[in-house]
């Protein structure tokens, strides 16, 4: 599933059947190349939904057990969120110092949150090559 | 595999950590006093209004000098500028700026004025970064006055801020474009080693 498809999707509580919010952004851990959390547009409880608290990432909505699954970001998540770590629009540099273009979209597995590919204007890059995302660029291993 | 690039292309290039942060940009290249190798880089801050940094990047800490960025492990590899500049200042040469120096052959013919320095970067990690030649604005002696040509250099040479001494035979290996220059450097160095 692409970030662009998933963005804006409803977050629904399975216990109350209420819509709790909409997906606003994604928090990536480059070390594990997977999603650690989603951020939702501000709710009463907070704005961060850890991936581990999600019941299911469905094609129409993301379900969570209860409204309490959404809370304010802890330090670990806060360190990974923010504009500096956001991949979309960021240039991609290899460790050899070559600019490959900028990230247009990210494909991930809705089952487990693993990143699959970074989509660039020039083609896709396997997410396994990702090393880190910083303020200037996403750094990837060179094409082997 | 190795690549050739002009020094002027390297300056302004961002210095990026493996974490993806741009910590500085290249301000200038520090050559070892023999002129044969690159010792490191002085740095300037990123952004329009940032001035020079008091930190420099030793060549040993450069992971890759790529076409779009200079990659380093992290910010900690930067060292105070003085420690990178010192060895080159003390190892015999006069230091100073090589751009604008006159290129003289051993017999005293002026070939032109240095306008840029050509670096050869070997691709292997931690590889050498050598000065392999100079881009020179040619004088009459080369028969192409006013045009820019590339003059290959031997491994070691004498250089000061006024003059750059090259062997007589360098004139036979002048190249007119950077693409053909790699082969010219190889041929020239083999020629120098040959008679010995």
Question: Which labels suit this protein?
Answer:
A: mainly beta; six-stranded mixed β-sheet; 2 helices; 7% helix; B: alpha+beta
- On the 0-100 scale, what is the average pLDDT of chain A? 87
Shape of chain B from CA axes? elongated
Q: Report the structural category of chain B.
A: alpha+beta
Question: How many helix segments of chain B?
Answer: 3
Which oligomeric state applies?
heterodimer
Described by the principal axes of the CA atoms, the overall outline of chain A is elongated
> Could you tell me the number of beta strands of chain B?
13
Task: Please give the largest β-sheet of chain B.
Answer: 7 strands, mixed
Using the CA coordinates, give the radius of gyration of chain B.
17 Å
- Order of helix and strand elements from N to C terminus of chain B: EHEEEEEEEHEEEEEH
End-to-end separation of chain B: 27 Å
Largest sheet of chain A: 7 strands, mixed
Q: How does this structure look, described?
A:
The complex is a heterodimer of chains A (144) and B (196). Chain A is 7% helix and 45% strand. In chain A, a hairpin with a 3-residue loop joins strand 5 and strand 6. A seven-stranded mixed β-sheet of chain A has the order 5-6-1-2-3-4-7, with no helix packed on it. A six-stranded mixed β-sheet of chain A has the order 11-10-9-8-13-12, with no helix packed on it. Chain A contains two helices and 13 strands, in the order H-E-E-E-E-E-E-E-H-E-E-E-E-E-E. With 144 residues, chain A is mainly β. The longest helix of chain A has 6 residues. Chain B is of the alpha+beta class. Chain B is 15% helix and 40% strand. Chain B contains three helices and 13 strands, in the order E-H-E-E-E-E-E-E-E-H-E-E-E-E-E-H. Chain B has a seven-stranded mixed β-sheet with strand order 6-7-2-3-4-5-8, covered by helices on one side. In chain B, strands 1, 9, 10, 11, 12 and 13 form a six-stranded mixed β-sheet that branches. In chain B, a hairpin with a 6-residue loop joins strand 3 and strand 4. The interface between A and B is medium-sized, with 18 and 18 residues.
């Amino acid at each position: 599933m692409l970030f662009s498809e998933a963005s804006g999707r409803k977050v629904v509580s399975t216990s109350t059947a209420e819509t709790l919010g909409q997906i606003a952004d994604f928090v990536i851990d480059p070390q594990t190349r997977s999603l650690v959390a989603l951020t939702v547009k501000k709710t009463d409880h907070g704005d961060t939904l850890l991936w581990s608290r999600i019941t299911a990432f469905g094609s129409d909505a993301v379900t969570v057990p209860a409204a309490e699954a959404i809370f304010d970001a802890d330090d670990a998540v806060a360190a990974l969120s923010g504009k500096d770590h956001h991949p979309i629009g960021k240039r991609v540099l290899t460790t050899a110092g070559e600019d490959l273009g900028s990230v247009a979209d990210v494909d991930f597995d809705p089952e487990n949150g693993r990143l699959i590919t970074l989509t660039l204007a020039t083609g896709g890059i396997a997410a396994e090559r990702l090393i880190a995302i910083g303020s200037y660029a996403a750094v990837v291993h060179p094409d082997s | 595999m190795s690549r050739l690039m002009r020094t002027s292309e390297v300056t302004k290039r961002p210095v990026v950590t493996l974490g993806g942060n741009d910590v500085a940009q290249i301000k200038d290249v520090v050559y070892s006093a023999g002129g044969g190798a690159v010792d490191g880089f002085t740095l300037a801050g990123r952004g329009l209004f940032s001035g020079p940094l008091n930190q420099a990047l030793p060549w040993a800490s450069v992971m890759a000098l790529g076409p779009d960025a200079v990659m380093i492990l992290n910010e900690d590899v930067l060292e105070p500028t003085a420690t990178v500049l010192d060895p080159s200042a003390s190892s015999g040469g006069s230091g100073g700026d090589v751009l604008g120096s006159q290129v003289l052959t051993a017999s005293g013919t002026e070939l032109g004025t240095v306008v840029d320095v050509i670096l050869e970067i070997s691709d292997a990690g931690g590889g050498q970064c050598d000065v392999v030649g100079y881009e020179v604005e040619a004088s009459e002696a080369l028969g192409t006055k006013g045009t820019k040509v590339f003059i290959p250099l031997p491994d070691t040479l004498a250089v000061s801020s006024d003059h750059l001494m090259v062997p007589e035979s360098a004139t036979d290996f002048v190249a007119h474009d950077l693409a053909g220059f790699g082969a010219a450097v190889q041929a020239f160095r083999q020629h120098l080693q040959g008679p010995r």
